[in-house]
Amino acid sequence: MKLSIKNTFNALVHQLELIYESGEAKSIAKIVFEDEFSIFGQASEKDFPITYLSRLAEITQRLLQHEPVQYILRQADFYGLKLKVTPDVLIPRQETEELVYLLIQTIGRSFSGVILDVGTGSGCIAIALKKNLPNAKVIAIDVSENALSVARENAENNNVEIDFRCMDIRNKSSWKQLNNINIIVSNPPYIPYAEQALMPISVKQYEPALALFVADAKPTLFYDLIAELAIQKLPNNGHLFFELNEFNALEVEHILTSKTFNVQLHEDLNGKYRMLYARLKC
């Protein structure tokens, strides 16, 4: 068989279909060809460069071990940006892009106040917001110094200035460092450990548990804490945005309405409640 780009691409897709559905296999193969090899015409009959074969074999082997392609290539796309990702940070997802979009559409691009991103990880939310709300000041906190190192590099690579701080939101004494906040946004850990068995191997084996899972006894822990922080730090009518676990979205809504917030649940593109927008009542 001729070692054409088309045949090589199709061979990769065929191998990936051993562990992924056909559509996902094609999507992963496309990312590999475009982001790693800068080959954008996967149906081309041109020769596949022989110098790429060794790297393609390595990538294929790792993919077949369920390792996420973003970690293998050390980058991910998010809201039109290229971001570095490592196993110290979550891989940015479409639902989080939708959260960023909701925030920008809600407050408008002329916003010039202070936004706090709680649990910033790769910095994806903070960086996308600063890119699209250039007049805003963005503070981004995370408990992981390793994650913050990645986030700082991403901010530098995308030419934005963000105030990154290492903080554990569970340590309420640290909250005194946060003042004059107008908006809080967060994609906190929200998956109970009991649901871990339901997660794909690529997630539970490779992505950081610290950013994913929360104790079964208190799955809304971080929503409670951040809501309390919001009550202390936001002005009247201050804004709060959350990404949600679809399975306890109504519970989070109840928590916030009981804490004097006006609350709106928002569906994602799949019709699931995955975002929440709340404002402190006057």
Quick take:
The chain is of the alpha/beta class and 282 residues long. The chain contains eleven helices and eleven strands.
How would you explain this protein's 3D organization?
The structure is a single chain. The chain is 39% helix and 17% strand. With 282 residues, it is of the alpha/beta class. The protein folds into two domains: 5-65, no CATH class; 79-280, Vaccinia Virus protein VP39 (Rossmann fold), CATH 3.40.50. The strands form three sheets. Strands 5-4-3-6-9-11-10 form a seven-stranded mixed β-sheet, with helices on both faces. Strands 1-2 form a two-stranded antiparallel sheet. α1 crosses α2 (22-36) and α5 (94-107) packs parallel to α6 (124-132). The N and C termini lie far apart (71 Å). The model has no long low-confidence stretch (mean pLDDT 96).
Write out the CATH superfamily name of the largest domain. Vaccinia Virus protein VP39
- How many domains, as an integer? 2
The residue fraction in helices comes out at 25-40%
Q: Would you give the CATH topology of the largest domain?
A: Rossmann fold
CATH architecture of the largest domain: 3-Layer(aba) Sandwich
Describe the sheet with the most strands.
Answer: 7 strands, mixed
Give the total of beta strands.
Answer: 11
Portion of residues in beta strands equals 15-25%
* Average pLDDT: 96
Structural class comes to alpha/beta
Continuous helix count: 11
The CATH C-level class name of the largest domain: Alpha Beta
Question: Radius of gyration in whole Å, from Cα?
Answer: 21 Å
Which strands sit side by side, in order, in the main sheet? 5-4-3-6-9-11-10
Shape: elongated
Q: Output the helix-strand order.
A: HHHHEEHEHEHEEEHHEHEHEE
